[in-house]
Write a structure and sequence with these properties.
3 strands
Length: about 325
């Protein structure tokens, strides 16, 4: 019964598009001003359960990342470059979930939800900007760990407060500037129907699938800008950690090696999760990847990754754990 109601709702939207086409017979195209996000197709009861679950995850993500930001700002022991960059990552995670999750919660509650064209393009821009920012910031954090382990005597003189601020500002500028061109080029496409997006937010690929005009330029722009945005930070991270591993293996004592590796293990875990999910969706998508699988992987980096990042840093970082215990 619920499935029939959902099919009827989707059919009504399609009928609405056909009625608009009939009212505009003198025009070649009917411009879409509203999109319908399908999200995860589930029954009403399951949708309510998922709503409650992801509402808790959303609140936990916001609280966890705000806690990291507050601890880094107030605790003197955390006034170091590494923790400053961790707080910037928390800001980026808050931006990601706040951009995507509220609309996703509405989709769970109402078995699909509409979003305006402007709202959809704004969501796409903020999402692209925050993801590009995190790519650059994770590379900056790997460089910070490289300097700390490979050049410990020069660490204080290299990673000064001014240098850290500049690197953070560059990361934010890169993120929001690199997202302009693909977002604007996508917004200039013609969307004439259907207006149904089989996803839980306005991502690039689902939008290109429903576009009526030629999407070659958008694909070209995305490749020309997106590939360097992902690959250059990836190369920096790989080179940095290669040198870090070589430097750690040269440490004579096992305790010293363990202590050196523990300072970058949390960052390495976060980088692995972030890039694995991104590569699965955008860089090396499988040809037989279903829509449900694509949405599930997208859910990992838009919801679960920001949720577990504060947990990883809290559990695997002694200074943050101690700061949390003091507050408790």
């Amino acid at each position: 019964m619920v499935k029939g109601q959902k099919t009827k709702k989707i059919t009504d939207y399609r009928k609405g598009n056909r009625q608009m086409d009939g009212q505009n017979e003198g025009r070649n195209l009917t411009v879409v001003t509203v999109f319908f996000l399908l999200g995860f197709q589930a029954s009403k009861s399951l949708g309510t359960l998922l709503f409650c679950l992801f509402l808790l995850l959303y609140c936990g993500t916001i609280c966890g990342n705000l806690l990291i930001i507050a601890l880094v700002s107030t605790s003197k022991n955390l006034h170091t470059p590494m923790y400053f960059f961790i707080s910037q990552l928390s800001i980026g995670d808050i931006l990601v979930v706040t951009n995507v999750v509220p609309k996703m919660l509405q989709i769970f509650l109402y078995c699909g939800r509409t979003i305006t064209f402007i709202g959809c393009m704004t969501q796409l821009y903020i999402f692209c900007a925050s993801e590009a920012f995190e790519c650059v910031l994770l590379a900056v954090m790997s460089y910070d760990r490289y300097v700390a382990i490979c050049n410990p005597l020069r660490y204080a003189s290299i990673m000064t407060k001014t240098c850290c601020m500049k690197l953070a500002v560059i990361s934010w500028i890169c993120g929001f500037s690199l997202a302009v061109t693909p977002s604007v080029s996508t917004s200039m496409l013609t969307f004439c129907g259907p207006n149904i997006i089989d996803h839980f937010f306005c991502d690039m690929n689902p939008l290109l699938d429903v576009a009526c005009s030629n999407t070659f330029i958008v694909y070209l722009v995305t490749i020309l800008l997106g590939s360097p945005t992902v690959m250059i930070p990836t190369i920096i991270i790989i080179v940095s950690y290669t040198k870090i591993i070589v430097a750690i293996l040269r440490i004579p004592s096992s305790i010293g090696r363990q202590k050196a590796f523990s300072t970058c293990s949390s960052h390495l875990i976060v980088v692995s999760i972030f890039y694995w999910t991104m590569f699965c969706v955008y860089i090396f998508p499988t040809k037989g990847q279903t829509s449900a699988m694509s949405k599930f992987i997208s859910l990992l980096y838009t919801m679960l990754t920001p949720f577990i990042n504060p947990i990883i840093y809290s559990l695997r970082n002694k200074n943050i754990s101690e700061a949390v215990k003091k507050i408790i």
